[in-house]
Design goal:
By secondary structure, this protein is α/β, with parallel strands linked by helices. It contains 7 helices and 6 strands. It binds magnesium ion and zinc ion.
Length: about 190
């Protein structure tokens, strides 16, 4: 019998790639120089790497779900070329005030809600108590905290601004400069 694996839930924008407002063209998708190395380190340590991202641009009609999938293919190709991989991908296309009606719901997957993490844990067989979430927004960490997942805030993307305005109900396990620092931190901690 396989025991459940620990995972790293990885935010996309501002964490794995540069924050670009609503990323709506592949030409605007820019990796941080250390991102491939950071993911490969986690792969080699036996952690499942699961990308979880709010994509309200879909709800707002800025781009379609097709584009979210295209961006994901681009990300995975780039990672694979560097010997790194993502084990699961979840995104939330919803928003309570969506201009596109079919996405206008108060869902349970939009971070800070923990729905994407919960679904990944059940579909991929993950051990949440030994898992981590890495993100540049407090809401990334809140999604994990609700399930007992330790959170690491990175100071890229919105991270510096977020770090300057702590939230009373969010306790990060660590605040670090960027994704490679977060990966190193996790390897020491797990
Ligand atoms: Mg982000
Ligand atoms: Zn959702």
């Amino acid at each position: 019998m396989h025991s459940a694996r620990p995972a790293v839930f990885l935010d996309r924008d501002g964490t794995l790639i540069e924050e670009a407002g609503y990323l709506d063209r592949i030409e605007r998708l820019v990796f941080f120089p250390y991102s491939v190395d950071a993911v490969r380190l986690l792969n080699r340590a036996g952690l499942a790497v699961v990308m979880v991202t709010n994509q309200a641009g879909v709800a707002r009609g800025i781009f379609q779900e097709d584009f979210v999938a295209e961006a994901y293919r681009h990300v995975t190709a780039r990672l694979e070329a560097g010997g790194a991989r993502i084990d699961g991908f979840y995104y939330c296309p919803h928003h309570p005030e969506a201009s596109v009606e079919r996405y206008r719901i108060a869902c349970d997957c939009r971070k800070p809600q923990p729905g994407m993490l919960r679904r990944a844990a059940s579909e991929l067989g993950l051990d949440l108590a030994r898992s981590f979430v890495i993100g540049d927004r407090w809401h990334d960490l809140q999604a994990g905290q609700a399930l007992g997942v330790r959170g690491i805030l990175v100071r890229t993307g919105y991270g510096q601004t977020e770090d300057a305005s702590p939230k009373r109900d969010v306790t990060p396990a660590a605040v670090v400069d960027n994704l490679i620092a977060a990966s190193s931190w996790i390897l020491r901690a797990s």
